[in-house]
Amino acid sequence: MPERSPSSRAARQAGSKQAPTECAADEVLRRCAFFATTPEAQLEALGKLAELVCLPRAATLFEKGDVGTAMYFVLEGSLRVHHGDLVIGRMEAGDVFGEVAALSKEVRSASVTAESDSRLLMLEQTAIYSTLAAEPAAARSLIEALCVREREIIEEKVERIAAGLALERELDIGQRIQQSFLPDRMPEVDGWTVDGLLRPARKVAGDFFDFFALPDMDRLGIVIGDVCDKGVGAALFMTLFRSLLRSGALHRRVADSGRAPADPGAILRHAISSTNDYIASTHASSSMFASVFFGLLDPATGELQYINAGHEAPLIASASGIRARLETTGPVIGLFENLRHRVETTSLRPGEAFFGYTDGATDARDEAGSQYSEDRLMAGFCDALGRDGKVLEELLFSIERFAGGADQYDDVTMICVLRHEAQA
Amino acid sequence: MSTPLRIAVSEEKGESPVTILHLSGDLDSKTYSDLESKGAEAIDKGSRRLVLELGGVTFMGSAGLRAMHGISNKLKSAGGGGRLKIANPSDAVSRIMKTLGFDQMFEIHGSLEDALKSF
């Protein structure tokens, strides 16, 4: 039995040829289902046409898309079947591969690379077809073996589809549970319109917003945040950040009860620092963090105390334009303990709105890759305020129209707290 | 189109040796784990003084902060009072660091020379 390197690429990587090793090729073929109905004489003839291929570790036998005319029988070693870095399967002694390209004009459907020094038996298309021409009965086991492969592929596909559907159901449940971490209806506050929306890019989101009342001090809590990264990991942390922030604010109220006057600044600092310190100390190995804007609004006066922990600056604007940007007053939270955040105070005048958003709104891209941009978002917000419609829905519609058919890359979250014009 | 992240490692010899990771390209969600791995590799080899030289970084997303936190965390658990410093960020990268509040989380120096002197 001759020995050779299988292709020019493998030959380059294989280095010098190894000495031929004794191997009864017809024995190997006899054990293979593909040749179960091939008569002895043809098997021996085929065995003489088979070649031994020695492939050193890390050498690539062939790559996806290569034209190939041979099938292989693994005698020794281990090889991975892959698309780039994605490993689809492994071949070890006794495995057969490459038959589709060997028996048709199809190119290689995957790459094969040796994971250890490997020895293979290679059978060329011409040898197989000459055997079939001489002994048509040999075709039966070849066809049967191909049918077995086909059935295995179908079964695997069915299993994958079932697993995919099960995962999809799990994500649907996750999505419903995550929805329950967002306000199910907007708070009704005399003289104000409060609204928020979140469009996840995937089933679950890392963005969040929250509105909640601190009833005994007549303040409305306003929160918008964005957990780094996307998908399930970000969604798990979203629930943690949102809950700790709300709990931190409400529990501080309990601790403060009886003391007067209530201090919104102390509540904000406590909620932000307790959330930050807990996540930074308990979940340090995850390196997950969130940018958060947390404000406490006094609806009677329009006064707003806030901490902006590394979040895109929310705006105070009216139909005639932007009056203020509420820039960051401290770092993002969740990574390092004992951070300092400044509390700032501003106010909303009649006819003005507070507008908070996450970067999914400004970074939305159209099919050409252009970003919706902060300028468009700001202009769109002021325009929408000038009409009497649903401001956030109009804005979202505008973002979606801009994006056209492009995939939504990131979660889009926006909140708007509008102070009505004073009644005459 | 994003520019691939490249990380070159150099050593500043002396009484207190410093390992410098010179970064160029985009530090984003696709590449931040490469930085984390390089940092971990240096710490595993015994480095306790690290500088991230960001002169060539063309874009840094929030994932950059995750990588830096990961390195800082590993330094802490490796013991020996390790320190991580950041040097030479471009104006664009400085703006992102300011928004995210890096100044409270890391020591940042305008030049590599200043960062090395500060150990």
Task: Give an overview of the whole structure.
The complex is a heterodimer of chains A (424) and B (119). Chain A has eleven helices and 18 strands. Chain A has two domains: 150 residues, Jelly Rolls (Sandwich); 247 residues, Phosphatase 2c, domain 1, CATH 3.60.40.10. A five-stranded antiparallel sheet of chain A has the order 9-18-17-14-15. In chain A, strands 10-11-12-13-16 form a five-stranded antiparallel sheet, covered by helices on one side. With 424 residues, chain A is an alpha+beta fold. Helices cover 39% and strands 31% of the residues of chain B. A five-stranded mixed sheet of chain B has the order 1-2-3-4-5, with helices on both faces. In chain B, helix 1 packs parallel to helix 2. The N and C termini of chain B lie far apart (37 Å). In chain B, 44% of the residues are buried. The mean pLDDT of chain B is 93.
Quickly list its features.
heterodimer; A: 424 residues; alpha+beta; Jelly Rolls; Phosphatase 2c, domain 1; 2 domains; five-stranded antiparallel beta sheet; 25% strand; B: 119 residues; alpha/beta; Transcription Regulator spoIIAA; 4 helices; 5 strands; 39% helix; globular
